[in-house]
Amino acid sequence: MRLSERDVVASVGQLSLTHLRLWVSEGWVAPAQGEAGPAFDEIDLARVRLIWQLRSEMDLNEEAIPVVLSLIDQIHGLRQELRTLAGAVDDLPADSRAHLRRALGKRRQGEG
What we know:
This protein is mostly helical.
C-alpha cells in the first residue's frame, strides 16, 4: 500500500507536513518517489511513527535522532545476517552442526 504525505500526516496524528518533509530531507525516512510525489509504504509509516515517539514522547533532540535510527538500522541488519547464518547452519550435515555446537559451547565457556 502506498501512502501520500497527507495520508501519513493524518495517520500519525499531531505530526505536521513540515516535520514530515524535514525528516525526509534529513534522510530519516526514505519514501519512494511516485508520480504525485513521495509514496510511503508501511515500513516508512512505522519509521515516521517511531521518530514521532522519539521526539514527542521521549523528548530526544534533533542530534540524537539520527544516532538512534542508525543503531536501530544496524540491529535490523545484524538480525538479517543472523537469519542467513542460521539458515546456512541448518543446511550443514548433522555431524558438522554437532561439531559447530561443541565449538560454540567451548567458546562460551572460555575454553577456546
